[in-house]
Amino acid sequence: MDILTNSIAKFCSLPPSCIIGVTAAVGFINYYFMFAVKAPRIHCKEGEFKNFIRQNVPIINEKYWPTMWCFEARFQSVLASLIRSFVVPPAPYTREIFKLKDGGEVALDWLEPMKRPNDMYDATILFLPGLTGDSKCEYVRATSLAVQKSGFRIVVFNYRGIGGIELKTPRTYSANNIDDLTEVVCHIKSKYPNTILGGIGVSMGGLLLGSFLSSNEQHVHKYFSAAMLISVPWNLIATTQNIEKPYLNRFLCTYLAKCLCNLVENSSNMLSSSSHKWDYNQVIKSKTIREFDSNYTIKLFEHESVDDYYKKASLHDKVDRIRVPCLCLNAADDPFCLESDLPLESADRIENLAILVTVKGGHIGFLEGIWPFTNSNEFMFRIIDQYFSSIFKNNNYKRYDG
After folding, report:
1. DSSP string spanning 116-180?
2. Model confidence at 4, in pLDDT bands (50, 70, 90)?
3. Number of C-beta neighbours around residue 364 at 10 A
4. What is the mean pLDDT of residues 247-252?
5. Where is the active site (predicted)?
6. Which residues contact 367 (CB under 8 A, 6 or more apart)?
């Protein structure tokens, strides 16, 4: 008792600044261990697929340890991008320029597997990046190299006007128009007719992939055999409200809107004509994503309104239409998609779709460990490896195709 009393007395004798600092540090550490370090929650109907995920994606049974000094959602989202841009090496893609039926062009960047496991069939994974992403983006490179190392072929779909390819027609892309994606998928299957096709969609790419998976095109032809959706903004109306909140979220929104405006400006030779349905000068002045979509996207793809476009592109009310085995990864603190926006109740009623929810992770963040400055064994890439390696093995995907 005397020892405890003396220790308290010595602590109280410290300068006020030290007392405040130590108290804050202890409180921060307690918060981290009590509320930030948790195993992912899995939302899926009890049954074979949920059991398969538990048994074959063992990382979900472990606690996810977000990097202690940067687990705040927006900080982690930005820092993950910065760190990967420095530590992830260039991916040695082989580029293919694919001409679309209307004369447009897109770039497909391929990586062949390093070594295919003996018990693994030929498999190709199509990667769909986020809103303004391309094959050179840090998270795309990192994913591509991780997939290649896992023994799969990967091809990155660079949307129209993206990835250093000039726009050949006055048309870009949207979060739910699957025309270009359909042509790309058919091309992959004609090039590798015996390959098993998997898909990874990140953020907006997840919306686009989800739209395809829920379409009649997929239901009839069964192109994809398995998929992963990562950091998907399931409800776009809620997402635009989330990212327009001051101040940090608004900053991210403004940055992305500027990137979209730059894409339009870089293709001004195709998009600035006065004969188009949109006002070019108004488009490039857009300050938010909603403004950009209002000024440009809905006019290009002939939606009645921005909300009409967002409703059609959202997936939160369409998860029951996805029939291939699909694993989704979201962070509960994603500034683009809050936990309340996730279709968790719907997932709990579906047998072939599972949503993994981490407490922390931000948007395409998921950094872990005290020192995240290496590209080895990142949480997100371990999930990708474990899922596809198990779902493609011995044709396991056929057991869960709804």
Report:
1. --TT---EEEEEE--TT--TTSHHHHHHHHHHHHTT-EEEEEEPTT-SSPPP-SS----SS--HH
2. very low
3. 25
4. 89
5. 203, 334, 363
6. 66, 67, 70, 76, 79, 80, 83, 378, 379
Query: Does the pLDDT value for residue 34 go beyond 90?
Result: no
Give dist(CA 136, CA 156) in Å, integer: 10
Question: How many of the other CB atoms lie within 10 Å of CB of 127?
Answer: 25
The DSSP string of 199-254 is: EEEETHHHHHHHHHHTSHHHHHH--EEEEEEES--S-HHHHHHHHTSTTHHHHHHH
Beta carbons within 10 angstroms of residue 11's beta carbon: 12
Contacts of 361 (CB under 8 A, 6+ apart): 64, 66, 73, 76, 330, 331, 332, 333, 334, 379
pLDDT, the chain, mean: 91
Query: How far is residue 141's CA from residue 146's CA, in Å, rounded to a whole number?
Result: 9
Exactly one of 363, 385, 389, 390 is catalytic; which is it?
A: 363
Q: What is the pLDDT of residues 333-376, one digit of tens each?
A: 999 999 999 999 999 999 999 999 999 999 999 998 887 766 55
Question: Which DSSP category does 352 fall into?
Answer: S
| Catalytic choice (333, 334, 341, 385) | 334
Q: Three-state SS for 111?
A: strand
Determine contact, residues 225/401, Cβ cutoff 8 Å: yes
- Cα-only R_g, the chain: 23
Task: Identify the three-state secondary structure at position 371.
Answer: coil
Rounded Cα gap, residues 384 and 356, in angstroms: 12
Q: How many other CB atoms are there within 10 angstroms of residue 12's CB atom?
A: 8
Contact between 108 and 158 under an 8 Å Cβ cutoff? The reply is yes
* Range list of H helices, 284-347: 289-292, 298-300, 306-313, 344-347
Instruction: Give per-residue pLDDT as tens, 137-191.
Output: 999 999 999 999 999 999 999 999 999 999 999 999 999 999 999 999 999 999 9
Q: Per-residue pLDDT averaged across 369-391, rounded?
A: 85
Q: Is 334 among the catalytic positions?
A: yes
Distance, CA of 284 to CA of 166 (rounded, Å): 18
Return the axis-axis angle of helices 379-391 and 48-56, rounded to nearest 10°.
120
What's the average model confidence in pLDDT over 205-218?
98
